[in-house]
Request: fold
Amino acid sequence: MQKESFVRRYGLLIGTGLAVGAAAVLLTFLGNPANMGFCIACFLRDIAGALNFQRAGFDAEVGTGIVQYIRPEVIGLVLGSTAIAMAKKEFRPKGGSSPMIRFILAVFVMIGALVFLGCPLRMVIRIGGGDLNAVVGLVGFALGIIIGILVLKRGFSLRRAYQQSMAEGLIFPALMLALLALLVLRPDFIIFSAKGPGSMAAPVLVALAVALVIGVLAQRSRLCMVGGIRDAVMFRDFRLISAFAAIIVAVLVGNLLLGSFKPGFAEQPIAHSETLWNLLGMVLVGWGSVLLGGCPLRQLILAGEGNTDSAVTVTGFIVGAAVSHNFGLASSATGIGTGPVAVAVAIGFVVMAVISVMNMQKLN
Reply:
């Protein structure tokens, strides 16, 4: 009975975590950048570049930069979520819960993620690859979540969401289909990198198929990187964090089998070793994700279910990616960006503090 209870309670989440980790290793093996089988922040940044919202590393002679590509993984995650939500009658469009606040929070979450060079999902993938800079990021992520938990305990809320029309809920999945068409047709006005991380990609059909499966699993399991630590601290509920751990295990095993496990701080792929900024970037991500109610991966899955607040949040991520690169806030393998990184991160903390206080129900 105990074994059956454990399987029922943890089986889907652990299975999803193992599948995500295995998929990340597979996609990297097939062409995605190292330690980047999945990275919601990086992939949305690439999509922003493909749509000409940012031109990082742009070379006028060849007409491309280094991080411009329509990532089919993002499309697959959303459409997989949409398909299973409809099949299970869980596609219920809703929204209207402080959309502009969510947009602003998302912009600063993305800025923090690109200072660190990765979303929470890439953070655990990097840990599985031996990148100790990501362990520093994990400490910052946990600190940010703890700050968010303290805010939640003071009654923080972005107010209730309301039922929306089916047409409203379908807009975001429809946009993903439009992106897929642009990826396949490759019109001249869409930019595709000829060098750099944006030029490294698994075959489109394989990446799309893998992401569709992960989108289904993530929707059914409610997988969330921030939710794992939040629930463990607040409720002593370790279900979500079990998936978090399973991703690391699967990536670690995969890297060991492929001979690509390289522990250390130095010379990690698409990463830097500036400890303070790895820490602070992920504090911003952790805090903002708690206020938003989920990590970037979870926001994509919710948007696929018809949640228009999450669709607005993802839009904020894309804008945040464009801002990060256009103003020199995004880091690179050589270190943090050349722009006003400290100012941007400080503003992010101030904005989150103000939003936190203004939306508390218990001020005394």
In short: The chain is about 65% helix and 0% strand. Residues 2-29 form the longest helix (28 residues). The chain has a mean pLDDT of 96.
